[in-house]
Hints:
Layout: H1 6-20, H2 26-35, H3 43-55, H4 58-85, H5 90-108, H6 115-135, H7 161-182, H8 185-199, H9 204-218, H10 223-238, H11 255-273, H12 284-291, H13 306-335, H14 340-352, H15 362-372
Helix pairs in contact: 1-3, 3-5, 4-5, 4-13, 5-15, 6-7, 6-8, 7-8, 7-9, 7-14, 8-10, 9-10, 9-14, 11-12, 11-13, 14-15
Amino acid sequence: MARITKSKIQDALTLLTLAIFPLGQLPGVLMQNILATGFRIHLLDVLALSLLISYLDRNSLVKLKKMLLPTVAVLVFSSLLSLATGFFGFEGMMYLVRLLVYLSLFVVFPKRNLATPLLLTSIVLACFGWLQYFVFADLTALKYFGWDDHYFRMVSTFLDPAFFGVLMVLFTLLSIERFIKTRSAVFVATSLFLLTTLAFTYSRASFLAFALGVIILLWRRQKLLILGFIAFLVLIVNLLPVSPGGEGVNLARTNSIYQKIDNYRESAQIIGLSPVFGVGFNNVCTAKNERGFVSGVNSCHGLDNSVLFTLATTGVVGLAIISLFIAKTMKSAILASSRGLITSSMSAVLLHSMFSNTAYYPWVLFYLVILLSSEEFIERK
């Protein structure tokens, strides 16, 4: 009988995590309804925690202390401070635990070649998107469950076109990178399939994120390909059906812009409640109630800008320390490899984060964990 080693357990957990990745929000929604909890526990969270525990040893703990101690200190301090200011909430503490798990994975996740499993994951996720688009195109009933209602937009298993869109952006950039390295037609086909899927989200923020990402990825290597991929996206977008459809499929829509502006105003008011250390991660819902803001069940904890979200929950001190952690993590990865995929993907996420709370989305975080810990996705210097 084959011996079950720690390494095999870690490999199995990693592949299992990628296997459940395309299920998106669905397992968490089901678990939330069964457990009747305010905080939605995702299977991805459970497996991420399991992976973290499997990698913990004396060396990794020393590394975690060195890399994460200031970040953990300010996050915990702002949450404890919220006990005194009245903004503390149990759900907020659970969001903090989730964030610490993913931040820790950034530090301890080992070098792995996961390009093929990741791209298979992306294809399955895109196929779920097409299934949803053709079978459940009308999702307006979701508003009765606290979600944003969507009509004839591709949301896949994430129930949100913006977050599904940014994942398609990241996977498309990965597929393009694989084509540059291998010159295989398979990756051209994969890239165009994922790019077409992205178009059907009607997510303008995701379109902008892709344009920025592909320019950074290919600028020093294949400038003509930049024009080719952007032209393809523009062509598909111009051929997108607009009828039947509502406001969401109107790419010239302005209603969402006004909603973003209102959300930014809310963010500014919440930041004003505790500008130095924030209201605690993630006590936005409590702070919104304090200010009398009305939000849906699933949007209560969110702000439509990751920088403003960081300021609101951890204050100026937290924003500075978290930014420093991100910079150190990126620098470590970039020094070990070329700047291509890491820089383009992080830039795409940063731009998208100006319109949604993308930087803290669990699936985006897990993807970046793998990307930043793997040299296999990036050409060597």
